[in-house]
Specification:
By secondary structure, the chain is an alpha+beta fold. It folds into 4 domains: 77 residues, Barwin-like endoglucanases (Beta Barrel); 109 residues, Rossmann fold (3-Layer(aba) Sandwich); 131 residues, D-amino Acid Aminotransferase, Chain A, domain 1 (2-Layer Sandwich); 80 residues. Helices cover 28% and strands 33% of the residues. The strands form 5 sheets. Strands 4-1-3-2-6-5 form a 6-stranded mixed β-sheet. A 6-stranded antiparallel β-sheet has the order 14-19-15-16-17-18, with helices on both faces. Strands 20, 21, 22, 23, 24 and 25 form a 6-stranded antiparallel β-sheet that branches. The longest helix has 26 residues. The radius of gyration is 25 Å and the shape is elongated.
Length: 445
Amino acid sequence: MKITGRITIAESLAKELNIPLYKHIMVRSGSLKVYAELVLSNKVSGGYQLSSDLAQTLHLHSRKKLLIRYDHFLNMLHLGPTIGILTTSLRNESDYEPTSLQAELMFLSKIGNTLPGQIYIFTPSSVNWSNLTVRGYYYRQTTANSGIWLSAIFPLPDVVYDRVSTRTGELRTMIRNTKKQLMCMEDVKYFNPSFLNKWKVHQMMMTNSELHQYLPETMELNLNNLEFMLSKHNVLYLKPGNGSLGMGIIRVVRDSNGGLKYVVHRRKRIRGQADSAKQLLSKTRVYRDDRPYIVQQGIALATFRGCPFDLRIIFQKNRHGKWQISKKFVRVAPPGSSVANLSSGGTAETSRKVMNVLFKNKDIIEEKNLEIYNFSLTLAKTLELSSGQIFGELGLDIGIDKQGGLWLIEVNSKPRKTTETGFSKVIMKNTFMRPLEYSTYLAGF
């Protein structure tokens, strides 16, 4: 057994953690584990101290004091948490858009600097698998309005928070291989591992009968299924299974003569008409680009100021591992459109304002908000159970019909969070902080 350095622990802390008096003990930082000499003393400040060679071996160079816990089963001291935020690339640019991924990563890093543990951002090319380390990056504020990315060698993390921001990036071989290796490591917890496919999500939600009332009728898009759905519903939505931001959605309306009018939502709206389901598929093939699509029942959504809207909910786990609504607002579709995504011209309103207009009665609003929470919780638990994966945050798009009923429109496992807001800055900050606090919980602290 190779002994590296020394860890000195205050006797009071050793008693609190119930650490037995051994001459040597295993010490862990992220995925690194070494044996060190154990010394108990009443003269140590801050609960514990590491010798410089032990700190160097474990790649602990944070100016913050790390949390400490004792694993009785393994007889191991665990220092941390060590949290890695995985992304595809990191740009060190002084000029950036406030709504960009870089702004999000900078804000995450700045919040991480205020929390216990070592929190860094890394890319697949940063990992050194041979010695279980990674070159991690963290943002250091230099002036009131600027800063710089710095780097250091860290242990592979206790927890990986996946912030791979695009489906294209997720398909890259290096990203796929890195994620696979990390998820196979015994000491690494990994959450939000992938984007979601609409058809697979629908199938998973259908496994729970409690959710059936909230699910629009949905089928995979082909000629037979389209003809069947047109025989039942006057309004349908054709949606790309792996799409996002409302791009590529096709709204289809059947008129009284059986004709089909459609609107394709791209960077601009494209209108057309068809005489049959077969002709509709033919005319929209160029927009669908041979991608897998679903066909979904259209819902007669309630309106706000004459425009349909939906609820966007950022649903996150907190420092205790419990789901909660971190942010809830309304996205109102632009005039003449049925797609409320902000990237497609939708506007944001507070849910309180819209719910007051829609329901008017305080008790009804409270009852509806409770139903929204319970629905979100059931959905999140069903998703984790059915997929066998860990999620720490979800973006939920929920529609409200003209009778006040709730409908699931979409689930997003990688909700983008802007650092700019016209609403509460505290709420905005909390949506960035909670995944890091949940990471601390996952790491065992």
